[in-house]
Design brief:
Number of strands: 13
Largest sheet: 7 strands, parallel
Strand content: 15-25%
Radius of gyration: 19 Å
CATH class of the domain at 2-182 and 232-263 and 300-314: Alpha Beta
Distance between the termini: 35 Å
Length: about 325
């Protein structure tokens, strides 16, 4: 099976590419490298010993997508491409709606033209909003607290409707919790351009001396230490979940939703303490005000993924911290 990975040079996309290649799939990457680098693809090739065909392309560009589909027999698509910063989405909602929805709609149109009928979507736990008790289950009502989350929810609805209309279409919606860590080789990991929007790369940059201190956004949440609690999952575990999702979609039509998380919640300060223990490096931090759209706690019930896909997260918080630091030390 040949799988098109949109945004495949990104953090989650690159790790998924490695897992796919390691499990007998072929991969083609479409990425405009707005928040990644072609060098990541070379690193994936080094890890797997396999060549990867890639295109510098905007996924919202129909002609660019048709070129990819005409030059490759694409059997399935995993859609990672999209803007993903909660705070930025609050500041620039129109940009988020335009990009994230356009890429999805273009993909669906081109897939239909070329007879590709497997679509795995990179969704988010943000679609559970702030109306549900933790842990979150896939059948809970959805809502959002920021435009980023709303784009994910809109796309889920688009894909659900598309699968209802086209009985040949198989859609899997993967609701991620908080991916951190890096590949155990230290060759690929999260390396955002500019100031990191996510916690772990920010901590790693402080540890490496690139940044003076960590900014903790809010200590007045309704949690055990006042800082926000999230379900952190090792990115390699998350990537393996995509392999399971593809295998499932190859045998089932319609639309299914799966949470991918550990079921365990850690606060921001829990992560800081765990990183210090794993690396022996002290992380200075300062408490700032809350970011718009942040909620107290997000944590998965991932029992459906175990029951249906045979998937569960296996790596520990120590692994997540140690692998992150191993990767950060290799960043040039």
């Amino acid at each position: 099976m040949t799988v098109l990975l949109t945004g495949g040079a990104g953090f989650i996309g690159s790790h998924t590419c490695v897992e796919l290649l390691s499990n007998g799939f072929d991969a083609v990457i479409a990425d405009n490298f707005s928040n990644s680098s072609p060098d990541v693809i070379k690193r994936c090739e080094k890890i797997t010993g396999k060549s990867i065909r890639y295109y510098n392309a905007n996924v919202a560009d129909g002609d660019a997508m048709r070129k990819i589909f005409s030059e490759n027999r694409i059997d399935a698509v995993i859609h990672f491409a999209g803007y993903k910063a909660v705070g930025e989405s609050v500041e620039k909602p129109v940009m988020y709606y335009r990009n994230n929805l356009d890429t999805t709609l273009t993909l669906l149109e081109v897939m239909k033209e070329f007879g590709t009928d497997i679509f795995v979507f990179s969704s988010s736990a943000t679609v559970y909003g702030n109306i549900n008790p933790v842990p979150f289950t896939e059948d809970m009502p959805t809502s959002t607290t920021n435009p980023y989350g709303t784009t994910k929810l809109f796309i889920e609805k688009i894909l659900t409707d598309a699968s209802c209309a086209d009985k040949n279409l198989a859609v899997v919606l993967l609701r991620y919790f908080n991916p951190i860590g890096a590949h155990e080789s230290g060759l690929i990991g999260e390396n955002p351009k500019g100031i990191p929007n996510n916690l772990m790369p920010y901590i790693a940059q402080v540890a490496s001396g690139k940044r003076e201190k960590l900014h903790v956004y809010g200590n007045d949440f309704n949690t055990h230490d006042g800082t926000g609690v999230r379900d952190y999952i090792h990115v390699t575990d998350l990537a393996k979940g995509h392999v399971k999702a593809l295998e499932y979609a190859a045998k089932h039509k319609g639309c299914e939703i799966f949470n991918l998380g550990t079921g365990t919640g850690y606060s921001v300060l829990d992560i800081v303490n765990a990183f210090e223990k794993a690396t022996g490096i002290k992380i200075p931090y300062v408490i700032d005000g809350r970011r718009a759209g942040d909620i107290d706690e997000s944590r998965a019930d991932a029992s459906k993924a175990l029951r249906v896909l045979g998937w569960k997260a296996e790596k520990s918080l120590f692994d997540m911290c140690a692998d992150t630091w191993n990767w950060q030390k290799n960043i040039k």
